[in-house]
Design brief:
heterodimer; A: 215 residues; mainly alpha; Nitrile Hydratase, Chain A; two-stranded parallel sheet; 47% helix; B: 217 residues; alpha+beta; Cyclin A, domain 1; five-stranded antiparallel beta sheet; 8 helices; 29% helix
Chain lengths: 215, 217
């Protein structure tokens, strides 16, 4: 077995820290070439994942789900009841999230999602999380000072609105269903989807604008 | 473990960078690192929880400043070293000096479609009785342990009420050690005023907690 078997993971980390190239780009290159030589990686598969997460999977997928929920009451009821099954049935590939929970904002309730222990996030629906979602400031404060965090995002939440924070400590993935803005009754799903922001599905945005929107 | 990763409720980290540009990746190496991790072969015991525990053991100062996807690469490097797949020297040079890893053929581009359509499930059948039901008052364990756990320190010893019974899920504390065992999972609502008394908090914090983290309150 490995010469490192007796070493703690912490020790291995410290050795890697002192021996690997300092620049992230070089470390990634070294890892890719080693994995290819070890027979553990096909570079074409890496290209395919980059393309998928650059062009296909991202907040627009989530926005289409939100827009459909706004436009179709039956879809919304099923989504809130069992989002995993509903999303599985959508014809867009890339929406597979095994344990998805959709939580609904209402005039009296606001929801905010965080992962204080790592960075759990519904990747397959929203794409890679923003950096701030993964950084200490958000992770530490979202549970303790969520109104302060929201203010920084420009959301001044009145005390009369109940604030519910969801710390993603398990494999359940939370997606916020924002409120449909007034003045959008006649809009089709495509136009509705165009005003749904990424942050509104995390909960760091609340009042979506009915100004504009593109069909 | 009582590590630097357990950030909920810690103070002194300043403002959130709300002006960050909204793009999937901020540099080419980030995209590459993300995709390498998705595409690479894995040893059978590399569970998600083992990965998380590996990340928790990054040097604390490094944990706070090293870019996120760079930490992913560092964790897989540490797991490769720990599993005897590659030496530190190989990981540093990017070239294999010993033989290939015996993990089968690398995954081809078609695996992207297959993985997009079929996400990994973490729930499991469970024969035992559920200890709690919706509405029950529960207290979170007062202590942690040196391994991987998903009970954040800010909830330890605090009481809340069960708001959802989620079914049985793979227990992370064991999964990080290579043991797959399912346990009931509950979403528990804590009043923030109980978590941080005297600060005027009015919100609710929901946590997903496994049964053995909890006792009747």
């Amino acid at each position: 077995m490995s010469e490192h078997e007796h070493k703690s993971t912490g020790e291995v980390h410290r050795e890697l820290h002192s021996h690997l190239p300092p620049e992230p780009g070089l470390r990634v290159k070294a890892m890719e070439s080693l994995l290819i030589e070890k027979g553990m990686l096909d570079p074409d598969t890496v290209d395919a994942w980059v393309e998928t997460y650059t062009d296909k999977i991202g907040p627009k997928c989530g926005a289409r789900i939100v827009a459909r929920a706004w436009a179709d009451a039956d879809f919304k009821a099923r989504l809130l009841e069992n989002a995993t099954e509903v999303v599985k049935d959508l014809d867009e590939a890339g929406w597979a999230v095994a344990h998805l929970k959709v939580i609904e904002n209402t005039p009296g309730i606001h929801n905010l999602v965080v992962c204080t222990l790592c960075s759990c996030y519904p990747h397959a629906i929203l794409g890679p999380p923003p950096n701030w979602y993964k950084m200490a400031a958000y992770r530490s404060r979202a549970v303790r000072d969520p109104r302060g965090v929201l203010k920084e995002f420009g959301v001044d939440l009145p005390e009369t609105i109940d604030l519910r924070v969801w710390d993603s400590t398990s494999e359940l993935r939370y997606l916020v269903l924002p409120e449909r803005p007034a003045g959008t009754q006649d809009w089709n799903e495509e136009r509705l989807a165009s005003i749904v922001t990424r942050n509104s599905m995390i909960g760091t945005d609340r009042d979506l604008s009915s100004n504009g929107g593109s069909a | 473990m009582d590590g630097i990763h357990d950030l909920g409720g810690r103070q002194g980290f300043g403002h959130v960078d709300v002006d960050e540009e909204e793009v999937p990746f901020h540099s080419d190496w980030e995209a590459r690192a993300f995709a390498i991790v998705r595409a690479m072969s894995r040893a059978p015991d590399w569970t998600l929880d083992k990965f998380r525990f590996t990340r928790e053991q990054i040097d604390p100062a490094d944990y706070l400043i090293r870019p996120y996807y760079d930490q992913w690469i560092q964790c897989y490097a540490a797991m490769m070293a720990g599993s005897g797949i590659a030496s530190i020297e190989e990981l540093a040079s990017g070239h294999a000096r010993s033989g290939q890893a015996d993990l089968g053929e690398p995954r081809g581009p078609d695996s992207v479609i297959a993985e997009k359509e079929k996400a990994a499930s973490f729930d499991r059948p469970y024969e035992g009785n559920l200890k709690f039901e919706v509405g029950d008052r529960v207290s979170a364990s007062t202590h942690g342990h040196g391994g991987h756990t998903r009970l954040p320190s800010y909830a330890r010893g605090r009481s809340g009420s069960v708001s959802f019974v989620r079914g049985a899920f793979i227990f992370p504390d064991d999964s990080a050690r290579g043991i797959e065992r399912a346990e009931p999972l509950y979403t528990v609502a804590f009043r923030a005023d109980d978590l941080w008394p005297g600060e005027g908090c009015t919100h609710i914090v929901h946590l997903d907690l496994w049964e053995s983290y909890l006792e009747p309150a």
